[in-house]
Amino acid sequence: MAISDAMLAFASIFSVFLLAQQKALAQIHRLSGVMALLGFLLMALAATMGSLRYGVSDIWAAPHDMLTNIATYMSPPLVSIALCLGLSAKSWSKAAWGRLILTVCLLYEISRWYGLELLYRDIQLALAICATLYFIIKSQLDFGPRIMILTAIGAYFVGGLIIGNEGTLLGYLRLDLFRYFIGLGNLLLSTGMYLALRVTYPQPEH
User: Fold this and answer.
1) What pTM did the predictor assign?
2) 14-25: b (≥16 Cβ within 10 Å) or e
3) Which residue in 2, 18, 32, 71 has the most C-beta neighbors within 10 A?
4) What is the residue-wise DSSP string for 27-87?
């Protein structure tokens, strides 16, 4: 499991690096880029702790469990809403992003209280996928970024909603397969997002 965590960490760190190129992003998209970066950073930290836990020592178990829980419920809304705002050429204020984070935390606590946190996780991921698909179809995004983002959505759907992270599949741990698919999705989504949100300059006329 340390290897799959390391692969997911690498993919997420690459995503963080891409979206850290704030000067390359259009001004309207920079705050959205920061929030998407935060979503990928949470996944990178969780996966790094997982690599240390399974590859080095169990002393990393507590921070790994904590960061995995945070990333599971916080990363999908941060990344998907940032992308949807970018595709619709809109932006949110810092206060609006703060309210989103508080709402996600509140809904998680309510779902945990009633023992429905796994259902909440799956609903949240399904809504993120559906919203992103809607805005992708509606947008005038170039072919390259569009294909990257659509392929990423497919990877998230297969990994998160079909494979899952419990038990085995064809002799492989589902959790390892889940991480590979999420890592692939992160690479493709962050690249497509970067291309979609960056500043575009008019081509010179000949």
Assistant:
1) 0.90
2) bbbebbeeeeeb
3) 32
4) GGGHHHHHHHHHHHHHHHHHHHHHHHHHHT-GGGHHHHHHHHHHHHHHHHHHHHHHHHHHH
CA distances to 11, 50, 148 from 61, rounded to whole Å, are 21, 8, 34
pLDDT on residue 200: 52
Q: Which fold has domain 2-197?
A: Rhopdopsin 7-helix transmembrane proteins (1.20.1070)
For the chain, domain boundaries: 2-197
Position 189 scores a pLDDT of 95
Kind and range of the H or E run holding 168? strand 168-169
Q: Are strands 172-173 and 168-169 parallel, antiparallel or unpaired?
A: antiparallel
Residue with tokens 């692939």: 184
Locate 58 and state its tokens: 């169990």
Residue written as token pair 């999705």: 185
